[in-house]
Amino acid sequence: MVEPETLEQRIRSAMPDVELVRIEDLTGTKDHYQAVVVSPSFAGMTRVEQHQSVYRALGELMAGPVHALALQTYTPEAWKKKNG
Amino acid sequence: MDDQLRQRIEEILGSHKIVLFMKGTKSFPQCGFSATVVEVLKRVNADFHTVNILQDADLRQGMKDYASWPTFPQLYVDGRFVGGCDIVRDMYEGGELQPIVDKALGRA
């Protein structure tokens, strides 16, 4: 189990230019999460690389406390487009 | 990761055009994310090999390091890591998966 705030803090401290982090507990058990991360640093990266940078930020949390993380990553431009 | 394990991974990737490292098997996935990718691969008419990482602790840890990717499933096409469930589903919905699969299987 891990608090959603912990996930957000880890992402924000490892990726300082992040513009939006939205963490959602999918099952109410604090181990299956969905995350949306918006950052200009994703520009030019493949989706695999974008997700890898979030996984790196979460480090050992991904090796145990978080069982599943559905991840969506966007550049600020892509995020704006998606949300009209 | 030790050389022997890396060699084993590369042998698996080299022997099959499309490989899915997953929880469970093609006919009996043991996780919803793995089941989703199996379903997507069937829809693009892919001929694919699966490896059940639940039955192989070495490979389960090794693939995490190999791909810098902490979760399963992991899809590889032509030896290259394509992504996990979210990315594969997005690529399918965006029409990007079919051409990669067709190319790998010589159907393009």
UniProtKB/TrEMBL annotation, chain A:
Name of the protein in question: Cell division protein BolA
Q: Which SUPFAM superfamilies match?
A: BolA-like
Q: Where are the transmembrane segments?
A: none
Q: Family assignment?
A: Belongs to the BolA/IbaG family.
Alphabetized, the UniProt keywords read:
Cell cycle, Cell division
Q: Give one Pfam family.
A: BolA
Task: List the top taxonomic levels of the source.
Answer: Bacteria, Pseudomonadati, Myxococcota, Polyangia, Polyangiales
Swiss-Prot/TrEMBL GO biological process terms: cell division
TrEMBL record, chain B:
* Family affiliation: Belongs to the glutaredoxin family. Monothiol subfamily.
- This chain's source organism reads Sandaracinus amylolyticus
In terms of InterPro entries, this protein maps to: Glutaredoxin, GRX_PICOT-like, Monothiol_GRX, Monothiol_GRX-rel, Thioredoxin-like_sf
Protein name, UniProt field: Glutaredoxin
Q: Which parts of the sequence bind [2Fe-2S] cluster? A: C31
Per its UniProt record, what PROSITE patterns does this chain match?
Answer: GLUTAREDOXIN_2
Q: Which UniProt keywords apply?
A: 2Fe-2S, Iron, Iron-sulfur, Metal-binding, Redox-active center
Record CDD domains: GRX_PICOT_like (cd03028)
GO molecular function terms noted in the UniProt entry: 2 iron, 2 sulfur cluster binding; disulfide oxidoreductase activity; metal ion binding
Q: Where does glutathione bind?
A: K23, R60, F72, C85, D86
Q: Write down the Pfam families for this protein, in alphabetical order.
A: Glutaredoxin
| Glutaredoxin domain segment(s) | 18-82
